[in-house]
Amino acid sequence: xxxxTLSSKRIDWREWFVYIVLVALIIGFSLMSxxxxxxxxxxxxxxxxxxxxIVALGATFVITAGHIDLSVGSLVGLVGLVAAIxxxxxLGIFLSSLVGLAIGAxxxxxxxxxxxxxxxxxxxxTLGTMGIxxxxxxxxxNTKAVIIxxxxxxxxxxxxxxxxxxxxxxxxxxxxxxxxxxxxxxxFGNYVKAIGGNPTAARYSxxxxxxxxxxxxxxxxxxxxxxxxxxxxxxxxxxPEVGSGMEMDAIAAVxxxxxxxxxxxxxxxxxFIGALIMGIIVNGLILMGVQSNIQEIVKGAxxxxxxxxxxxxx
Length: 314
Description:
Elements (H helix, E strand, L loop, with lengths): L1 H7 L4 H20 L6 H26 L7 H17 L3 H25 L5 H19 L5 E2 L3 H9 L1 E2 L2 E2 H19 L1 H11 L1 H6 L4 H27 L1 E2 L7 H11 L11 H20 L4 H21 L2
Antiparallel strand pairs: 1-4, 2-3
């Protein structure tokens, strides 16, 4: 009986470890740079992590379902570019935004069909569409940027602010709240966890595995599209190279947050903390004057160390 009691009171150190890492980074960088703990700097961090967090929300569903989506970074660039072209053609903010969202959803549908009907592993499917999306973005304008002159678009999607709060952060917060509800408080979220845990058992229990898998990929595509619109608004232009590597940052945020790469488990709040950790690492290194190539090395090493130590304490 004593052993059972002790076991029931064991602390899940892996769950808490991401918070420990976050606090340690904040303390460390605040000691190394006086500019770190300032309102202006945290506004910058908010803008920096907004797109990665939004993409990571979709990645959390995909990874929980036992899949992976490598195309989302390329989709960010393609959607922003197409939206810019649409506005240059006179479609206006609503239709241009709708076209961008439709592209994200369309890629999600394609991913879902190829994974569920053609039985092609999601890694290979999205690796292929990553190249397709990036190639389309580079080809459409012959690698050139498309300037956005519509001030309403840039204000609504990312360049504006509500008081001191950047609009991109407002979008992130709103979509984060929706993601928490979907993931933790709906039947859909429970189905996604069940599918990732054991798709065969989920199918035999009456869950429509193919339908829910399709919805997961569509959701991820929509989140990438929103991130693309926000990025285009911030840059006031559509740029084909934008979003490169964002898929890796999003996946890292999800895994750093404690989700299993093999599916079945995750926590949306921890995904946000994972994205915040990565943003703080980059921001702190910039304040310290560390070169961008060294930043990538340090960021990668910290992520590996944090995930490794978190697993040890599991």
